[in-house]
Amino acid sequence: MDMKKFILLTAVLTLLASCGSNDKGELVGVKGKKWHPEKPYGMELIPGGAFIMGKGDDDLAGVQDAPAKTVTVRAFYMDATEITNSEYREFVHWVRDSIIRMKLAILADEVGKVPEDGGIGEYAFKDADTANMSVYEKYMFENYTGLGPTGYEGRKINNKIKLIFDTSEYPDEYYTEVMDTMYLPLEDSYNGQRTWDVKKFKFQYSYMDIQEAAKNRGIKRRDAIVKEQIEVYPDTAVWIRDFAYSYNEPMHNDYFWHDAYSEYPVVGVTWKQAKAFCEWRTIKKNSYQKSRKGAAMVNTFRLPSEAEWEYAARGGLQAATYPWGGPYTKSDRGCFMANFKPVRGDYAADQALYTVEAKSYEPNDYNLYNMAGNVAEWVNASYDPSSYEYTSTINPSVNDNNNQRKIVRGGSWKDVAYFLQVSSRDYEYADSARSYIGFRTVQDYMGTHVTGKKK
C-alpha cells in the first residue's frame, strides 16, 4: 500500500512539474539571462585569430629565442593604454583607506564604541547592528566572524562614512591613535611634513592555481588556493637606482603622486604588484556588479600572455617589425613613431626625455597606444629561451612558478630600437621594479565568434 502511495505521489509531482513549464516535455535546456557583452571601460576588443609569432627577419642580436611559428589566440579585451599613475593611485588609495577603516573598526570594537557614540564609533563594523543584516550576511557573520589571524575576518567595514585626513579635524583620541600608526615616526620626517608609512599599504588576495589543480587530480581544492599579501606602493627610488651618476631626484620626488604626471604610465611596479592590481580591479568591478541586482559578474582582469601581447601589438599586420609596420622607426614626414632612445646619449631626439603620456603617438590598428616604447610591459609568462619550441599552438602560455624571470615586452623610453620590435623578448625578475617597466591588463572575451578573419 505504501509503495502505491509513493508511485501515485511521484506521478502527481511529475505532472505538476510538467504543468508548471512551457517546454511541452521537450529537452530545451536551462535558460539563463540573455548575454550582452559589455566592453570594459578603456579597453579595446582584440579579435581572436592566427598569426606568425616570433622573428620574421634575421635576428640581428643573435639571441635566437623567438623562432617564427604560427599560433592562434582567442578573443580578448586589452587596455588601450598602459596603466597610468592616476589609475594605479586609485588602487593604492583603496588599499590605504581599507586598512585605515579596518584599524578604526577594530579599535572601536575593542573600546566598545558604536555609531551612536560618535567619534571613532562612526567607523565601527557595520555588523555591530545585526538587526539590519540580510539572511546571507547574518549567516556569514555567525559562521565566519572571529576566524583567521586577526580575529576579525568576516566583519564588514563601513565604507560609507568619509575618512578624515586633516589632523585639526580628528574626532577623538582613538581616531588620532589609529591615524598616527599609518605615518612614519616624527624622527623620519623632514620639512615639517608627515609621510605615509607605505610599507603598511598591503593588499591581500587569494586565487586558485588552476594549472596545478589540473595537473594534480588528487589535490584538494583548498590546497590549490594560493594566498598572497603584496605591498602595493611603487618603488619610487628606481629613478635613482637604475641610473648611476645621474641626477633624477625630481622624478623620484614627483613622478608617481604629482598631478602633472597623472596620465603618464606607472613605473616602479613589480610583476607581483601588477598581478595584485589585476585582482583588485576585478574585485572593484564585481563589487559594483553585485550592487546592481541581477547583473552578471565579469571575468577576471589579468596580465596578457606573451602570445596575446605580441598578437595585439602587431595590430593585425603579419610579419611586421613594429606595431606600425616598419621596418623604419620614423614616419614619411621624418617623425619618430615611438618613445625610445634613437641616438646614443640623446634621449630627447624623439621629443621625449623620459616617459610620455600613455595616450601619445599614433595607435596601432587595434587602437592600442605605445605597444612599442614609452615603458616596457610585464606579461604573464616566464622567460625560457627555448619555450617557443614546445609551447602549444593554441593560446600558448608558459608561466613556471619556479622561474622568477618574467617576460617584459615592447621596449621603453631608455631602450634602443631592437627592443621595440614586436617579436623581441626581454625579461626581469618578478620581485624587481624598474623606472622603465609598467603594464597593461586584459580580460577574456566571452564567446568565440569574434575573430580577425574577413568573411
Automatic annotation (TrEMBL):
Xref: PROSITE patterns: PROKAR_LIPOPROTEIN
One protein family per Pfam: FGE-sulfatase
Sulfatase-modifying factor enzyme-like domain mapped to chain residues: 43-442
Keywords assigned: Lipoprotein
Signal sequence interval, chain numbering: none
SUPFAM superfamilies: C-type lectin-like (SSF56436)
PANTHER family, per database record: FORMYLGLYCINE-GENERATING ENZYME, SULFATASE MODIFYING FACTOR 1, 2
The protein, known as: Gliding motility lipoprotein GldK
Organism of this sequence: Mariniflexile aquimaris
Primary gene name: gldK
